[in-house]
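Bug #77: duplicate submission created two jobs. Keeping one. Sequence:
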Amino acid sequence: MKIDRTVVRSLLLFDRISDADLDRLLTHATARRVTAGDAVFEQGQVAENFFLLVHGRLKVTQVTQDGQQIIVRIVHPGDLFGFAKALQRLDYPGTAKAAAESIILCWPTDLWPQFVEQNPRLAVSAMQTIGQRLEEAHTRIREMSTQEVERRVAHAVLRLSQQAGRQEGHGIRIDFPITKQDIAEMTGTTLHTVSRILTSWEERGLVEGGRQKLLVIDSSGLRSLAEGARD
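Kept job's structure:
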């Protein structure tokens, strides 16, 4: 599909790059539309490309050695992803699937050194992304090691509302399809447990659910739960 330069220009990552430099970058890029549920790449696949999400949302999952699937990252518009070469890997460490219909740009992995050398801001963005991923991973490990399940779920929902929330009526809508199973995979618990917690929260007026939808009504109440406060 054709690359719309004005759409790419609107992303924070490219808002200061010159037209000439942007055109040079896009010369080597290929645009793809990814249907919800389809994979951009699979865990263990040879990393032939790296990517930028232009529109939509992606979920990156990993399957652990004991066969458990966990969601390790949500990719938002403007995020670079799949840059295995920057991690000194030849393969992708996880599977990236579209949570909603998405548009991505992809470049051959061999162009990664040129990509970052000629565009210092993009290199900084990649390093920031790696740092954010590490920090979030450490936070989630700490939460799973030290916190009860309800606190972990509260932290996960708050993160989603901050990263992908939009104001809607009397609350903040998580702006992509999100399932109870997704939240279970983010927090190291079961579908049954997440269903029980969300039902309790709905009864207390903290959230409002729906099929693959979640509206956060009382962020301060969720924050109190995440911090370990009781009714």
